[in-house]
Amino acid sequence: MEKRQELYRGKAKTVYTTEDTDRLVLEFRNDTSAFDGEKIEQLDRKGMINNKFNHFIMSKLEQAGIPTQVEQLLSDTESLVKKLDMFPIECVVRNVAAGSLCRRLGVEEGTDLTPPTFEFFLKNDALHDPMINEYHIRSFGWATEAQIEQMKALTFKVNDVLKQLFDDAGLILVDYKLEFGLFNGEITLGDEITPDGCRLWDKATRDKLDKDRFRQGLGGVIEAYEEVSKRLGVSL
């Protein structure tokens, strides 16, 4: 598949068109950012790790019957993906209290959440991705009632699959965000699932093995990403 014109450049990924109007090339870069781009660094090998990690996770979800946009690895840092008509919405599931939930509600970090919480956020960097609810989504036409319910159902199915996958690897899936789009009318999981977009803790020590190491200046970011990949059996 020939990579052609740059279509979109995000904080850590670049999307390119191909000769197939229904297929794109997704490139993972070494750029690492936090706090809406206020903190930016280059971390060697990060693009390669996230690309292969994402392909591994998406393959597991496909096997579980969850449609995803990822089709194949093209190189260490590139994947071929379906072109989705994305919903401007992030679906966030939290199994353990951390991050913004603790700041908003005064909940102690590490509190187990039973059942898991579910939140919608508007994907808008300029507005700092504000929290929204189903009434906003319907009123502004971002998705239909049926699409909202299907995204929620798929998100919780992803949660069931990934919680078990990470638990078997000695990890706690604390929280994560998902983005969905339409491909030939079918709601399909897009974007990425990597340590950049989810919180992962060691089950025994609760050491952080995700992007919080970068946000909080803990160091060892790439080493943590590699450790998670090793435990899952991702071939780097």
From TrEMBL:
Annotated ranges, domain SAICAR synthetase/ADE2 N-terminal: 7-231
Keywords: ATP-binding, Ligase, Nucleotide-binding, Purine biosynthesis
Pathways involved: Purine metabolism; IMP biosynthesis via de novo pathway; 5-amino-1-(5-phospho-D-ribosyl)imidazole-4-carboxamide from 5-amino-1-(5-phospho-D-ribosyl)imidazole-4-carboxylate: step 1/2
Cellular component per GO, a single term: cytosol
Record InterPro entries: SAICAR_synt/ADE2_N, SAICAR_synt_PurC, SAICAR_synth, SAICAR_synthetase, SAICAR_synthetase_CS
Single GO biological process annotation from the record: 'de novo' IMP biosynthetic process
Molecular functions per Gene Ontology: ATP binding; phosphoribosylaminoimidazolesuccinocarboxamide synthase activity
Family stated for the protein in its record: Belongs to the SAICAR synthetase family.
Protein name, UniProt field: Phosphoribosylaminoimidazole-succinocarboxamide synthase
Organism: Saliniradius amylolyticus
Lineage: Bacteria, Pseudomonadati, Pseudomonadota, Gammaproteobacteria, Alteromonadales
